[in-house]
């Protein structure tokens, strides 16, 4: 009991320290906040705005000519009396145009275009963690930390990226290339672990949001290095074509499943025949021999180790 | 005897009311001798155990078939043991030893043979020998004695049916209130009347003299007095209802906001009108208006629902979850504020599920709420504190860190302690819905969400102080009143605001001689429950620049003097001055009593040069409808088209502006002629000045047509027009528009004149106006300023002898030869008339300062010195005089529609104006108020108001510019003492 209590106390004290220090630092200069971003999975710590040299009311922002056409197209999808419904797509577009983050003037511009009070736009922008309200790297690298990825080694991915880039979650590299973030499940659990990279280098038109799956720590590092040097690393699984049962990276390197084991165990156990129960016509007496099973799916990896 | 199996007590101990005591008597020779075990008595006890849900206990006796002994036992049980019901078993047959019926008849005062007949009828269905039984029943005092058959089987057969009527029988005998388990036996109680909420109130609107209702009892709340009225006349019922009431009203007494939403009821047996539905609240049928919420149904049933986010003047948010109730067939508790009531819905508010749910919500709310009640200004009047007394636990299970939120700076009025916020969003909804400023919002999400402006900025509403009242916790409190008083130290007085001409109802809270704060008071006809920031926060001006002794200027500047010296100095100043050479000017804050006293005195001195410092002198006061808001404030809420001429209601009467905004929200259309302003609601700007008025005369199109075709059109002429030199020709233009567009029609008078100072209407009502010949009067040699600080320079010539009577040292006192210290509106009981012509009275909240005196008594004393004594010596006498001159001034709080006289006044006005051919000038119309925060001596002396002006110069007022300064088209400029 006592030990538990002490641990809890220590954790609490640590957190108090963190909050205090973040508030101190925050008044001085824009820095990155490290693990403080726990709560929102975002590098935006605060849900209020403080003016900073690169983000204040005088920071210029306007949609480009081309993007104004997109705005018009977007607005045409909503009834004229519900223009405000377009706030999320509009903010998204502003974020893509503005190198991955929404400055105060970008939000104000959206409010102006939509004819809604700025505070209502701020409410939306602060609610969704995919909107970044402070400056961000050109590539937003988000490591999935949810259970399946964690079990398959996402912590190693995180550690490798952290050590390689020299930044932790919520921080940006000095050269402004990468911001590291943690995300909740992105739905690619079969190919766990994975990272998602939002590429803000090419504006609205060239924006991409790529999944990189089946990662070993080395893969993760080589992906960010490829990105840094302008190459286009392979998206999707690094080792298989899609999500077929071909192997896994749980041990830190790709271990393919032997060819004869790509089938389910029960299939093997039943002597190469599909195990029951099977659908059958109950009105007929079942034949003694089971009907032939479906043809075996022959799959293999596209990238053998 | 198997007493171990047959309980001698039972029921739910938590049941309210008295415990019921039952007597069970087994009459049997053999059982009493111990020959065999008695099965009948235990069978009866077992029945009690199964059937009765309320609390009970039993006395169980076994006696032989001896008449005397039976009688003795029955008497003991009824008279000594106090059993309300005594059941015997056995001894009812035809055998010689069977004497129970005889003994029963012997001890009873009155017989109830019906029970015997019913029991035989029941038994005859089972056995033909039932006809041999001689059971009976009777009443002894307040006890019912009942003979039951002897056999356990027969006992259950009969008592299961017979018992249905017994609880009601006992209730009628003023015995305890017995409830039954309905699956065993359903107690029958006839004559429960249905309760129907009157339609206007089912929506949650409060009224004066509210009534809470429990099944038998009404509570009237008038002022602070709760009156209990029993309708049934039963002592027992009244006692029971009072118990129930104590539970439900306990929280209401703590916080008057609860009672405001308790709905008045009328008890009627009439069938439900078609627009009503019937629902059941805690088993009690209630009829409510279709479309009402579950919460409205509970209110109608007199059941209080705890709440934080719900407020009947704001939209429904449903996010605090405190108002959870149980609804039959619903798998989860339901948020009653957001759930529409459906016909036949069975609502439970007192079940264990509801209690558990609310306790859970409270626990969650308290997780992040700091335990700083001892240093919280809301302490003692905090909804969270009050409700945690009902639903809170004495310990928490949460062991993590509480979150902390940075405080926001909303300006000099509203203090924020955001860590205390429970995210009810009342302030956000008030700002965006009522005040009409889109300043506040909730940013972030989940545990990280916080209320604020995101970018630090001023809350730019003139009604911002109302969020303090709305905040159910201590997150938003009054900045000027921070840490100055605890609410239980304060003495409250119900009064009227004088900061504008609307006459908002206020409550003045004071401690000792100091006004500590001012709060709004509910008045649906005037200010609903809002007041402006000036009305709420200018009170610190009452403590500065005050005049507390008479002052006389004897050539050395103003010096302190005694009253007698000061009055003699006035007398000396008057020496040799003829009536025509005098002038009296009433200020913005003058009350009706002092106005009539001064008028009477000046008339006695032969002077009729009576002016108001609100500028214009030539307004005709013969017809009240000429200068009043004829539609009335509540009438304006029914308007559909509104035209504002030369008015900025946002500064002239902010609470009226909230009403106009509500009108717009409900679909009304508004337009202005005058400066193009941000009025917090969209409106059409028809032009800057007189040409736009001329345009309106074309009723074929545009706003002329709109006014003509409107159902309830309204034109409001602002005080800015009345201050202009060319007001005559402008008013005539307005009159033409009124006539041409039919703004005044059958049962609807849409012509309104608005004023900006509290004294103005009373002065007009009392005829405090210059007479016709005063136009040719010479420049005055003697000027009496009745609290006048905004007089025009030319009205007070440099060589005139000036007397200033008032409460603040401002422009008037600086110019005066003699200063007579009067009282401010919080220090006197005085009559004010608002711009709709409603007379209202202030009350004395704090005593006058120093040597200051109530204003009319000063004039009265001066009249004595001048040897022209006024014929009134008491406040009642003055008011009688007020009543002689203007009878409506004594009908306090009431509003009479001013007589229109078929527009005769317009014709007379036009005839008068015919001689004066001057066309209206082309100058744009302006509001009469340049700076909302600095309008009269009190607000000009207030540091808080000065801070408000300053805040607009240093804090951002808009989200879009980093430049501080006036909000767009708000019209606040620097300095501007007027």
TrEMBL record, chain A:
Alphabetized UniProt keyword annotations: 2Fe-2S, Iron, Iron-sulfur, Metal-binding, NAD, Translocase
Gene Ontology terms for molecular function: 2 iron, 2 sulfur cluster binding; metal ion binding; NADH dehydrogenase (ubiquinone) activity; NADH dehydrogenase activity
Cofactor: [2Fe-2S] cluster
Region (Disordered), start-end ranges: 231-305
CDD domains: TRX_Fd_NuoE
InterPro entries, sorted: NuoE-like, NuoE_dom, NuoE_N, Thioredoxin-like_sf
Record's GO cellular component terms: catalytic complex; membrane protein complex; mitochondrial inner membrane
One Gene Ontology term from the biological process aspect of the record: mitochondrial electron transport, NADH to ubiquinone
Biased amino acid composition, Basic and acidic residues: 278-288
Classification via PANTHER family: NADH DEHYDROGENASE [UBIQUINONE] FLAVOPROTEIN 2, MITOCHONDRIAL, NADH DEHYDROGENASE UBIQUINONE FLAVOPROTEIN 2, MITOCHONDRIAL
Family under the similarity heading: Belongs to the complex I 24 kDa subunit family.
Name under which the protein is recorded: Uncharacterized protein
Taxonomic path: Eukaryota, Viridiplantae, Chlorophyta, core chlorophytes, Trebouxiophyceae
From TrEMBL, chain B:
Origin: domain of life: Eukaryota
Obligatory cofactor(s): [2Fe-2S] cluster; [4Fe-4S] cluster
InterPro entries (alphabetical): 2Fe-2S_ferredoxin-like_sf, 2Fe-2S_ferredoxin-type, MoaB/Mog-like_dom_sf, MoaB/Mog_dom, MoCF_biosynth_CS, Mopterin_OxRdtase, Mopterin_OxRdtase_4Fe-4S_dom, NADH_UbQ_OxRdtase_75kDa_su_CS
Annotated 4Fe-4S Mo/W bis-MGD-type domain residues: 490-546
An example Gene Ontology biological process: ATP synthesis coupled electron transport
UniProt pathway annotation: Cofactor biosynthesis; molybdopterin biosynthesis
CDD domains: fer2, MogA_MoaB, MopB_Res-Cmplx1_Nad11
UniProt EC number: 2.10.1.1
SUPFAM superfamilies: 2Fe-2S ferredoxin-like, 4Fe-4S ferredoxins, Formate dehydrogenase/DMSO reductase, domains 1-3, Molybdenum cofactor biosynthesis proteins
Top EC class for this record: transferase
UniProt key word Transferase: yes
Keywords: 4Fe-4S, ATP-binding, Iron, Iron-sulfur, Metal-binding, Molybdenum cofactor biosynthesis, NAD, Nucleotide-binding, Transferase, Translocase
Gene Ontology molecular-function annotations: 4 iron, 4 sulfur cluster binding; ATP binding; metal ion binding; molybdopterin molybdotransferase activity; NADH dehydrogenase (ubiquinone) activity; oxidoreductase activity, acting on NAD(P)H
Region (Disordered): 957-978
4Fe-4S His(Cys)3-ligated-type domain ranges (all copies): 353-392
GO cellular component: membrane
Keyword ATP-binding set for record: yes
Domain 2Fe-2S ferredoxin-type: 275-353
Xref: NCBIfam families: molyb_syn, NuoG, PRK09417.1
Recorded family membership: Belongs to the complex I 75 kDa subunit family.
Name the UniProt record assigns to this protein: molybdopterin molybdotransferase
Native source species: Symbiochloris irregularis
């Amino acid at each position: 009991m006592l030990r538990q209590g002490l641990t809890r106390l220590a954790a609490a004290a640590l957190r108090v320290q963190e909050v205090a220090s973040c508030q101190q630092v925050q008044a001085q200069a824009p820095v990155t906040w490290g693990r403080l971003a726990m709560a929102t999975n975002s590098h935006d710590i605060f849900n209020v705005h403080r003016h900073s040299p690169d983000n204040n009311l005088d920071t210029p922002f306007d949609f480009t000519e081309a993007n104004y056409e997109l705005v018009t197209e977007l607005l045409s999808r909503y009834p004229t009396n519900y223009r405000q419904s377009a706030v999320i797509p509009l903010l998204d577009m502003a974020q893509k145009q503005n190198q991955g983050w929404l400055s105060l003037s970008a939000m104000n511009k959206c409010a102006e275009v939509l004819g809604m009070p700025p505070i209502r736009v701020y409410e939306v922008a602060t609610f969704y963690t995919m909107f970044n309200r402070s400056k961000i790297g050109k590539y937003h690298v988000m490591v999935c930390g949810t259970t399946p990825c964690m079990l398959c080694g996402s912590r190693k991915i995180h550690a490798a990226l952290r050590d390689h880039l020299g930044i932790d979650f919520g921080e940006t590299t000095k050269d402004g290339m990468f911001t590291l973030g943690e995300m909740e499940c992105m739905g690619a659990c079969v190919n766990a672990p994975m990272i998602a990279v939002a590429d803000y280098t090419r504006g609205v038109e060239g924006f991409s949001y790529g999944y990189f799956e089946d990662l070993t720590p080395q893969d993760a590092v080589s992906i960010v290095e490829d990105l840094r040097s302008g190459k286009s690393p392979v998206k999707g699984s690094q080792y298989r074509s899609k999500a077929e049962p071909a192997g896994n990276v749980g041990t830190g390197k790709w271990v393919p499943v032997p060819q004869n084991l790509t089938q389910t165990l029960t299939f093997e156990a039943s002597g190469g025949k599909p195990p029951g129960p099977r659908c059958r016509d109950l009105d007929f007496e079942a034949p003694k021999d089971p009907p032939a099973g479906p043809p075996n799916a022959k799959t293999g990896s596209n990238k053998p180790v | 005897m198997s007493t171990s199996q047959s309980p001698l007590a039972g029921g739910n101990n938590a049941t309210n009311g008295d415990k019921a005591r039952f007597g069970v008597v087994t009459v049997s020779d053999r059982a009493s001798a111990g020959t065999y075990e008695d099965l009948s008595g235990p069978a009866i006890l077992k029945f009690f155990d199964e059937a009765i849900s309320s609390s009970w206990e039993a006395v169980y006796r076994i006696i032989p078939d001896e008449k005397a002994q039976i009688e003795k036992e029955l008497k003991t049980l009824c008279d000594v043991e106090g059993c309300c019901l005594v059941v015997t078993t056995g001894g009812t047959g035809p055998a010689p030893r069977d004497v129970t019926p005889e003994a029963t008849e012997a001890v009873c005062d009155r017989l109830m043979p019906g029970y015997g007949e019913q029991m035989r009828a029941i038994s005859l269905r089972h056995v033909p020998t039932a006809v041999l039984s001689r059971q009976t029943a009777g009443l002894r005092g307040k006890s019912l004695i009942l003979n039951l058959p002897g056999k356990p089987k027969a006992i259950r057969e009969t008592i299961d049916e017979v018992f249905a009527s017994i609880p009601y029988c006992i209730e009628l005998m003023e015995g305890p209130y017995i409830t039954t388990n309905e699956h065993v036996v359903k107690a029958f109680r006839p004559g429960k009347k249905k309760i129907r909420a009157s339609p206007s109130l089912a929506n949650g609107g409060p009224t004066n003299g509210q009534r809470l209702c429990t099944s038998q009892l009404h509570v009237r709340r008038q002022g602070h007095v709760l009156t209990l009225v029993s309708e049934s006349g039963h002592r027992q019922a009244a006692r029971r209802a009072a118990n129930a009431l104590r539970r439900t009203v306990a929280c209401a007494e703590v916080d008057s906001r609860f009672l405001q939403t308790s709905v008045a009821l009328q008890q009627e047996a009439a069938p439900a009108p078609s627009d009503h539905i019937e629902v059941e609240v805690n088993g009690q049928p209630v009829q409510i208006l279709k479309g009402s919420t579950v919460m409205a149904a509970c209110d109608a049933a007199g059941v209080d629902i705890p709440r934080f986010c719900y407020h009947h003047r704001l939209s429904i948010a449903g996010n605090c979850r405190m108002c959870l109730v149980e609804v039959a067939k619903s798998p989860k508790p339901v948020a009653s504020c957001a759930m529409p009531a459906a016909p036949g819905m069975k609502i439970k508010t007192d079940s264990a599920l509801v209690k558990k749910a609310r306790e859970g919500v409270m626990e969650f709310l308290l997780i992040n709420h700091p335990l700083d009640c001892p240093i919280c200004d809301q302490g003692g009047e905090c909804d969270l504190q009050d409700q945690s007394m009902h639903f809170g636990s004495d310990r928490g299970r949460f062991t993590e860190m509480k979150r902390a939120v940075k405080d926001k700076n909303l300006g000099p009025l509203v203090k924020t302690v955001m860590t205390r916020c429970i995210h009810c969003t009342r302030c956000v909804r008030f700002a965006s819905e009522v005040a009409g400023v889109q300043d506040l919002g909730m940013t972030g999400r989940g545990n990280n969400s916080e209320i604020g402006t995101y970018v630090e900025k001023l809350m730019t509403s003139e009604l911002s102080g109302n969020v303090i009242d709305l905040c159910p916790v201590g997150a938003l409190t009054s900045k000027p009143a921070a840490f100055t008083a605890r609410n239980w130290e304060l003495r409250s007085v119900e009064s009227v605001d004088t900061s504008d001409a609307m006459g908002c109802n206020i409550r003045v809270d004071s401690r000792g001689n100091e006004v500590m704060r001012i709060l709004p008071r509910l008045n649906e006809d005037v200010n609903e429950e809002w007041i402006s920031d000036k009305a709420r926060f200018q009170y610190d001006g009452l403590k500065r620049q005050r005049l507390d002794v008479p002052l006389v200027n004897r050539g050395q500047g103003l010096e302190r003097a005694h009253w007698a010296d000061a009055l003699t100095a006035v007398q000396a100043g008057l020496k040799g001055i003829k009536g025509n050479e005098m002038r009296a000017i009433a200020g913005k804050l003058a009350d009706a009593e002092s106005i009539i006293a001064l008028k009477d005195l000046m008339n006695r001195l032969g002077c009729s040069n009576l002016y108001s410092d609100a500028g214009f002198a030539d307004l005709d006061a013969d017809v009240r409808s000429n200068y009043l808001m004829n539609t009335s404030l509540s009438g304006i809420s029914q308007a559909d088209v509104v035209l504002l001429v030369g008015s900025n209601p946002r500064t002239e009467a902010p609470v009226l502006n909230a009403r106009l905004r509500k009108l717009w929200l409900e679909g009304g259309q508004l337009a202005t002629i005058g400066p193009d302003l941000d009025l917090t609601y969209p409106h059409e700007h028809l032009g800057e000045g007189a040409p736009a008025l001329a345009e309106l005369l074309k009723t074929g199109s545009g706003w002329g047509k709109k006014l003509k075709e409107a159902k309830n059109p309204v034109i409001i002429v602002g005080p800015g027009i009345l201050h202009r030199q060319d007001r005559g020709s402008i008013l005539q233009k307005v009159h033409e528009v009124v006539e041409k567009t039919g703004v005044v029609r059958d049962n609807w008078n849409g012509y309104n004149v608005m004023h900006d100072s509290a004294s103005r209407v009373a002065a007009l009502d009392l005829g405090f106006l210059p007479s016709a010949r005063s136009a040719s009067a010479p420049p005055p040699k003697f000027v009496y300023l009745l609290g006048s600080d905004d007089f025009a320079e030319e009205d007070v010539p440099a060589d005139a002898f000036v007397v200033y009577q008032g409460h603040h040292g401002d422009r008037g006192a600086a110019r005066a030869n003699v200063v007579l210290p009067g009282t401010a509106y919080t220090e006197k009981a005085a009559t004010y008339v608002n711009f709709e012509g409603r007379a209202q009275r202030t009350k004395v909240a704090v005593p006058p300062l120093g040597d200051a005196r109530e204003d009319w008594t000063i004039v009265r004393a001066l009249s004595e010195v001048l040897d022209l004594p006024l014929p009134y010596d008491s406040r009642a006498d003055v008011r009688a005089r007020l009543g002689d001159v203007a009878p409506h001034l004594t009908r306090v709080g009431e509003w009479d529609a001013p007589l229109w006289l078929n527009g005769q006044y317009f014709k007379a006005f036009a005839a008068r104006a015919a001689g004066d051919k001057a066309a209206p000038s082309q100058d744009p119309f302006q509001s009469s108020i340049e700076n909302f925060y600095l309008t009269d001596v009190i607000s000009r002396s207030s540091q808080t108001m000065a801070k408000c002006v300053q805040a607009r110069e240093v804090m951002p007022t808009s989200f879009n510019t980093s430049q501080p300064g006036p909000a767009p088209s708000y019209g606040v400029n620097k300095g501007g003492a007027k």
